[in-house]
Amino acid sequence: EIVLTQSPGTLSLSPGERATLSCRTSQTVSSSYLAWYQQKPGQAPRLLIYGASRRATGIPDRFSGSGSGTDFTLTISRLEPEDFAVYYCQQSPGSPIFTFGPGTKVDIK
Amino acid sequence: EVQLVESGGGLVKPGGSLRLSCAASGFTFSNYNMHWVRQAPGKGLEWVSSITYRSTYIYYADSVKGRSTISRDDAKNSLYLQMNSLRAEDTAVYYCAREDCGGNSCSYYYMDVWGKGTTVIVSS
User: Does residue A64 have a pLDDT over 90?
Assistant: First the structure.
């Protein structure tokens, strides 16, 4: 079983700052099967990035994903007020089984 | 508009049963693998179960295996999760989600459409 670890647990930043979120997997995974989601309180998760670096429809270009192997990164270039949320990475060893990371909370400093 | 709407949650005693439903609209439901994902209060996301199109393959997380049954009715554009022998640790918001694979190449796995969720509380 592949385990996902996200760091940091909480990231405290100010609007306009750059956010760098990490997702590490316990084994090498295909970049094609690595995705990122955003979740705000009381809302369902929202797909941001799939295939490690591909933005989902309607996602602003301040969100970018990168990485390969066991290390993946979600970067928010300049935080907007609406970006303060929890972010989850997800991997799939093969459709239709999925695993989520524990999440990183980005809150306002 | 592409939409998923869950229902069927509620308060149930330990050992009880619930059947969750998810109504899909705005897309060809029968073409997609579908999932249930849950989130316990204050916790992260946990994948629960999935069913492929045509119901060819079904998978469960170990935490619900043997106690839950996922099914779909393509004629009704609906997904279901029958949950039995419920425990306090099953208390969560249950989301229905659509799996997509990135167009004609189908090279990616992700959940691109989510419902708003239905809340299950297991308590005496």
Answer: yes
